[in-house]
Structure formats: structure tokens, C-alpha cells
């Protein structure tokens, strides 16, 4: 991972992040907290089609609304997977 991604992963051990294994988390954090440099790296590394696929298959509740608006326009995404945070959190906490 390029060192300029480190501020996007303040709650992770940056040296343990693997670009292939942690692809979904990297893309989500780049969309939510990154700037143009992060987005370009993600598009170049994973390819626009793969980034688009991951965004479309990730619940919109994982993204910040403003970031999502921009990425929807850039990637021409019209439909996504919708789930509230509660729907995602309940199974993880076994509620």
C-alpha cells in the first residue's frame, strides 16, 4: 500500500493491510475519506469495473452520503444494494 493511504486507516495496523485481501475496505475508505489521489490509485490498481462492482454490492450505509453522490456520478452507478446499518449490525452481533 502506498504510504499516502495511511491517514485513511487510522484505526487499523497499516503495515498489515494487504491490497488484495483487504480490497473492499480499501475501496470503501478511499471513497469515504480519500482525495483524488486515493481514488486514482484505487481505479488504477483494481480497475474501474472492479471498483464499480464492489461499490454496487456494498450496502450504501457503508458510505458517506456526499462521497457516494460523487462516486455514483463518476462511475454512472444507478442501482446499489440497500441495507440499513441495523440490518448489517444485527447479524454481526448475533442479536
What does this structure look like?
The protein is mainly alpha-helical. It has one domain (21-93). It has helices at 23-33, 36-46, 48-56, 65-75, 85-93. α2 (36-46) packs across α3. The longest helix has 11 residues, at 23-33. It starts with 22 loop residues before the first helix and ends with a helix.
Topology:
Layout: H1 23-33, H2 36-46, H3 48-56, H4 65-75, H5 85-93
Characteristics:
95 residues, mainly alpha
| End-to-end distance | 36 Å
* Order of H and E elements: HHHHH
| Strand count | 0
Radius of gyration: 14 Å
The chain-level structural class is mainly alpha
Q: Main sheet? A: none
- Helical residue percent band: 40-55%
What is the beta-strand fraction? under 5%
Shape: globular
Q: Tally the helices: what do you get?
A: 5
Summed up, the domain count is: 1
Overall mean pLDDT:
85
List segments where confidence is low: pLDDT < 50 over at least 5 consecutive residues. none
Amino acid at each position: 500500500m502506498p504510504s499516502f493511504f495511511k491517514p485513511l486507516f487510522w484505526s487499523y495496523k497499516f503495515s498489515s493491510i494487504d491490497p488484495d485481501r483487504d480490497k473492499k475496505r480499501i475501496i470503501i475508505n478511499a471513497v469515504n475519506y480519500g482525495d483524488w489521489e486515493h481514488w486514482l490509485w484505487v481505479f488504477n490498481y483494481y480497475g474501474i469495473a472492479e471498483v464499480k462492482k464492489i461499490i454496487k454490492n456494498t450496502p450504501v450505509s457503508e458510505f458517506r452520503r456526499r462521497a457516494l453522490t460523487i462516486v455514483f456520478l463518476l462511475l454512472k452507478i444507478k442501482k446499489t444494494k440497500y441495507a440499513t446499518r441495523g440490518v448489517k449490525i444485527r447479524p454481526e452481533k448475533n442479536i
